[in-house]
Amino acid sequence: MTSTGIGLSAALLASALAIAAATPARAADEEVKDFLLNNGMEVVVIPDHRAPIVTHMVWYKIGSADEPPGKSGIAHFFEHLMFKATTNHAAGEFDRAVADIGGSNNAFTSYDYTAFHETVPPSALEQMMGFEADRMRNLILTDDVIKTERDVILEERRSRIDSNPQAVLDEEVDATLWQNQPYRIPVIGWMHEMEQLNRPDATAFYDRYYRPNNAVLVVAGDADPDAVKAMAERTYGKVARGPDLPPRIRPVEPEQNTKRTVTLTDARVSVPSFSTQWVVPSYHTGKPGEGEALDLLAEILGGGNRSRLYQELVVKQGIASDAGAYFQGTMLDATNFAVYGSPRGDAKLSDVEAAVDAEVTRIVKDGVTDDELERAKTRYVRSMIFARDKQDDMANMYGSTLATGGNVKDVLEWPDRIRKVTAAEVKAAARYLVLDRSTTGYLLPQQQAEN
Fold it and tell me: Catalytic site residue 31?
């Protein structure tokens, strides 16, 4: 088994966080527990005894946006290297141990964190901790290992990005939207920099960031917090604390004063589409309540088949096959808010874009009604019922929050903060959606560009 590579897509991430963030404080009848090991590793336990399984995740507070200049892709590259041999286990031994007990394991890299996870029977939890604690510091990194896995990530880029018109456009839009922040650089890296990654790069990255005091352990499922603490102390607790890392202070995005467009035409595209994005505050960088207001704004504007965009463009006008909006709230720095759409039938992409722009303009000018706001709040809070049944949703929600400057209290109090958002606060959040200060990407069929 190998690592998954890059994390969730923007829309999928936004959807997952909307569901996950509404998870109740209790998964079953026990409260979430949070504690620190002596070496600085934070541990969160989310008990849920309804099924004899447990999800074990290690989140490192290091992502692609933390990479040194000229070393794009090193975070994702190192995610792959973590599956190689250690001084205690041969390459592939960890994966085989998980498979032998009918479990699953994988990993992903994002802008702000890298996470490794296993879902196994509770009896195997300490074994998983032992494997993860071992590879935290005991990897064997040779030139041959580096070369072989570098070839793997280069091929991954060719197959997942370079051969996919939508992925290519997404990269170019990101590089245009972000003028200063490192979010402009793709998580997987730029090809010409990936080709130069070497063993000294990997070793320096490993020694700096893969330390217990830069990691969060999340255990969700059929586990007792006291037993988890004892197991964590026997495994992770033996790993020496690393040097204290400086605060994660990155370049700040300047004020944006122009409308920019990026267009990609490709013969493989059959249905045109567009997206318009804005730089907005995240939960971490915004004022109190601003992230919640932006979440609800995205829900009302384009968060599903009850949203304004869907009802107006898909149901009433019938000009769009798809239309929506999303907000990526759990980012360490400023984040993006997006609207998107695709035409249906004989409708033109320009018609869809004009209709989307009209809905954005209307919500900026007039705000939202108390009634639709209450319905959006209800949908968000009710989603907890479904999130309760997914250990990985709960583990992802806590892990992503703690890895980006939040804490357990932020997660527990989220539903109450959502309930307190007013219509005036949603309208205030909509002030960021200025069409003359946006970045729009167009994905067009080849014949449309030629006409």
Answer: no
